[in-house]
Design a protein that fits this description.
It contains five helices and two strands, in the order ααααββα. The protein has 98 residues and is mainly α. The chain is globular and about 30 Å long.
Length: 98
């Protein structure tokens, strides 16, 4: 089916969980618990109710950061498109409380 859609010129968008796998996010983040960095549910709990969190997190995905979760740094991910960073940020923030 994907080949047919590509042949007809239609793009197949990956879902945020697929993006998280493809971009290697799951190498450092668990869905619920900390691995190297915080679990996605922990991130969602910290920013729940913050209307500016999706934009801020998308920026952190692409630009990196340090100090938010202790001394660990989030490396820059400039290869992640702005649209994918936005989709990932919204998905992370939608995770249920741990």
């Amino acid at each position: 089916m994907a080949a047919l859609l590509l042949w007809t010129g239609l793009a197949v968008a990956a879902s945020p969980p697929e993006l998280a796998q493809d971009y290697g996010c799951m190498s450092c983040h668990g869905l619920v618990r900390k691995q190297v960095g915080p679990g996605f549910a922990q991130v969602a709990a910290r920013y729940r109710g913050d209307a500016e969190a999706p934009q801020r997190l998308a920026g952190k995905i692409r630009s990196g950061g340090v100090g938010t979760w202790g001394r660990l740094s989030m490396p820059r991910q400039p290869h992640v498109s702005e649209a994918d960073a936005q989709a990932l940020a919204r998905w992370v923030l939608s995770q249920p409380a741990p």
